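In practice, a research group might receive sequence data for several interacting partners and want a quick structural hypothesis before committing to experiments. The following worked case mirrors that situation: the sequences arrive first, and a predicted assembly follows.
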Amino acid sequence: MITKYSTTQSRKAGFTRPSKKLNLMHNKNVTLFIQCLIDCLYPDVGEAVVHIFQKLGLTIIYPPDQTCCGQPAFNSGYKKEAKVAAKRFIRIFENADSIVCPSGSCVNMVRNHYPQLFRNDRKWFRRALSLSKKIFELTEYLVDILGVEDIGAGYHGKITYHDSCHLLYGIGISNQPRKLIRSVKGVQFIEMKDSDRCCGFGGAFSIKYPEISTAILEEKVKNIIDSGADAVVGCDIGCLMNIHGMLSRKGSPIKVMHIARLLAG
Amino acid sequence: MNFSDQNRFINNVRKALGRSPGHKSSLQEIFSIKTVDESRELYEKIKTRTSTQRQKLLSRLINESKTVNLNVICLKNATSVSTSIAGLVREKEPEWGSRKSLTAWEHPLIEKLKLTEVLADRNVPVFCSKLRNNKEAVRDRNTEKMQIRKHVIDSYIGVTSADFCIADTATLVMKTRPGQGRLVSIVPSIHIAVIELKQILGNLKELFILLQHDPKEKSEGLTNCMTFISGPSKTADIEATLVHGAHGPREVYLYVITGR
Amino acid sequence: MSQITTEKYKDEAKRAIKNPVLQDALSNLQERLGKGAVEAYKNLPEGHRLRIEAHDIRMNAIENLDVLLKSLAENVRRNGGHVYFAEDALSAVSHCLEIARKHNVKTAVKGKSMLTEEIGLNRSLEAAGIEVVETDLGEYIVQLAGEHPSHIIAPAIHKTRKEIGKLFSEKLLIHYTDDPPALTRAARKALRDKFLAADMGISGCNLACAETGHITTVSNEGNIRMSTTLPKVHVAFMGMERVVAGLNDYDVLFRLLPRAAAAQNMATYISYIGGPCHKDQVDGPEEFHLIIIDNGRTKILADEEFREILCCIRCAACLNVCPVYRKIGGHSYGYPYCGPVGSVVTPLLVGINRAKDLCLGEMLCGACKEVCPVNIDIPKMLLGLRAKLADGDRKWNVTRASLVEKALYKTWSWLIRNRWTYDLFLRLAYFSQKFLPQKGGMIRRLPPPLHGWTGKRDILPISIETFKQRAKRINLNP
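A structural hypothesis for the assembly, expressed as tokens:
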């Protein structure tokens, strides 16, 4: 079953009306992959993504059967289990025009690791490869594919940005989110020190090697605090959950925000 | 020499590479990356440099020398170079012991400096890293080598020339030849090198092109030791603090004879 | 063999994290060298493209190692040198001991070489009554202190100037100073005597040239030139992968190496050494010996998944950007090779099970690949190693690291197969999290095996409504 949103439906659902100048993309379909951590911990982020696309007048398709791309298993070396997830993902998404996911590491997984995972399986390799070409990370899709840098969002405050590793090194995204943040009305953008250094998340690593993970995170959090920003924005919920976890423990008032929520604001 | 070790070893490597038993491959087949034409072209370019181009290389060298703390001094002729060296000898004090002495290469460019004469009145001996070629000497070569070694160790300045100097990285390139010892450029506290403008090359690539395409360089080969030197010896092993003069020379002076 | 303490990774890492002096030193190192390397690449006319070219050059060499090694050996012999092929550490060491005996060697001076650490050369020479002096300043400090190097090119990075000052005042009998130039001068003086008295010079080999039969040595200090010129015998140790086809290859590699290693455009000294001194030359060693070592490398070569790691030129750039190395330092890795490259090389050399924490205790962030001068995909190989630990591997003699974990991932793969079971699981988790301590809407403590997370972090509870449910809710036609 495919759940479709159209702009008419969304207005009834309480979403704001898209501004006229941006409402140019009626004919575009976008299929959402909402990463599992967003699905169960930060569903607001998913909603924000919906909001952004509706504002832009896109038709949103959300396959409700989706679960996980398989990254947790893959990164821990459990390739067989990862393949189960990957095959399922391919089956669900391969007929989409373009898939957008608000998570760099999932896109990295699908785009770069799926073909590798199936390198010895001709049939699945082909399917993985063709899928890998139509999945996009949210900011990449907005800036590079749609050519949109200003979504007409507003936010009052100082914002700093954390470069997630798989987003930066895996799929080479660093300017797109910055462009989007800078164009949000009322935002004062501040680069933190070493924004491109890992936050220490690393998936299962953060649980298996908590001392190393939090030692790395301490420095990230220090750089965020030292930046003087009142909110830190990122494109990967894993990193943000990590940063959020420590800022909360420290009782810091600094907000942690997925870029979708900033852009939907 | 134990060739069975070698054969077994290389067989293991072949197995690891999954070579078929009959697989043959020569070194020449492996050099596939660079095209010969391009190298030829560059070789011609190096060989036909105008004096303006050379001056440009010199400016690049002077600029780059600052990064590696190499002192480049451009002078018109050999006489002014030896006067300048005499100045350095006067000014600089020995690091080990109190007596001043120099050891220099046997090299046409160095001979032109007439260092022995220039420094005679200061009572600073100039030794040459050269073996005598008469019969007695040949018989007692070891003693003679030991003596030269002692001179180099006692000298606080070593004077050499170089085969080339690479502008991009301020790198002196020197091969090893009779009379042109390796120790002269590493053991003394101060290393002075003297070259002519025409010896300056643009970059590392040009050097490798010359080594492979210049008939003279090609027939000589790299010799048993070809060394690149870019500035004085340095270390940053203590708290990443840069210190010059770790083991080799603390200072390096490069004289470029410009001829005008 | 070198001592292997890879099992202590976690404990050593914890200890390193708690050492504020080490933490400062590591940050300082990365600020200078790691960032410097990235900057230094920028002044290359070819930019990052050159790293890809370097990768091709190295891969070309690795895939033709049989031919290159044979040519190298022939050419070195033609130049008057001796070549030995050693399959393991023991045979490499015994070749060196034999040479030492023949020349009645009492003192050997050494240039920095990770390979000699790997084969435990110093201990064997010392056991034979030979004084071995490390001459790289960092290595010398580490040797005087009776420790091991903690970084591939900055071995004493874990020591402060104060510690070095104290060490020198005790061992070199000088007045205490913590001034780096004064300390360097003291070492310069002490080591000069060693250089002049040594009977044997030992060096590693950076990248040998098969075409001409030369090894290359690279240093900033000049200690390798001293070690390979003053003593009457020069013995060079070379890992079998450290060779390139011809002179053409060096332009690219020698422009990248110093940038990657030390943010320099060029190292102070690079020497191409191919054989002993000729009878009409005034100096240089009378004999030149090259010992080429396998010690587990053919096994890596045979596995196409890991072959690429043999491209490594040991510049240590990956250490200088690695967020994990930045916190745990080199000693935690328990083997001479540390940092990201060590996390791949060490398990392959000493055993994957034994060094499992090295493969699992890295983050796959990818900073190492981005800075590698020969563009080695280190994260990919870490993933490869993890896969072996996950399911075991006969070829590498790996047993499954954790049955429990395997069962967990197996269960997970069942859960995610069906959205219905997945949702059911989330519901269960949602209700059971009510028993966990919470504050300000955040969970303060998770139960084992997840408790590692909440040592210093909170976590958001599972939402009452998943995105899927919201999607359904905001849709008017459920």
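Before designing any experiment, note the following. Residues 20-42 of chain C form the longest helix (23 residues). The two ends of chain C are 68 Å apart (CA to CA).
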